[in-house]
């Protein structure tokens, strides 16, 4: 017997608005029945588990121990700029001059996530 990951749960202060942010980040839709004010919302990813947003009264106090790592289909640099335009903030920058590394961002509620190098970025470094 095994277990299958059903969703990735993200506790937040405003489930609908945070799901809306992540819907724009991933280019995937929110659940069609979700509406402003809902305490539970979802972003329906193309493959794998859904992103499940659960409204809770507690605020983010410490660094989250689990976070999402994003591999963009454009360059990492273009994606970092797009994410900032959507409302993400810079947490720390682990990008190196040789093109390796990653950029740590936070969503509008402070949940950290990483922007990794894209497949084309990685291919360009190995050639």
UniProtKB/TrEMBL annotation:
<dbReference type="InterPro" id="IPR041581">
    <property type="entry name" value="Glyoxalase_6"/>
</dbReference>
<feature type="domain" description="Glyoxalase-like">
    <location>
        <begin position="8"/>
        <end position="115"/>
    </location>
</feature>
<dbReference type="InterPro" id="IPR029068">
    <property type="entry name" value="Glyas_Bleomycin-R_OHBP_Dase"/>
</dbReference>
<protein>
    <submittedName>
        <fullName>VOC family protein</fullName>
    </submittedName>
</protein>
<dbReference type="Pfam" id="PF18029">
    <property type="entry name" value="Glyoxalase_6"/>
</dbReference>
């Amino acid at each position: 017997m095994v277990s299958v990951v059903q969703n990735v749960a993200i506790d937040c202060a405003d489930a609908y608005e945070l799901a809306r942010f992540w819907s724009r980040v991933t280019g995937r839709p929110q659940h069609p029945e979700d509406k402003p004010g809902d305490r539970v919302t979802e972003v329906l990813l193309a493959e794998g588990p859904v992103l499940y947003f659960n409204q809770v009264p507690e605020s983010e106090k410490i660094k989250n121990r689990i976070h999402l790592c994003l591999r963009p289909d454009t360059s990492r640099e273009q994606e970092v700029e797009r994410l900032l335009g959507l409302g993400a903030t810079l947490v720390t920058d682990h990008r190196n001059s040789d093109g390796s590394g990653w950029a740590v961002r936070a969503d509008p509620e402070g949940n950290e996530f990483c922007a990794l190098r894209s497949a084309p970025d990685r291919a360009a470094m190995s050639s």
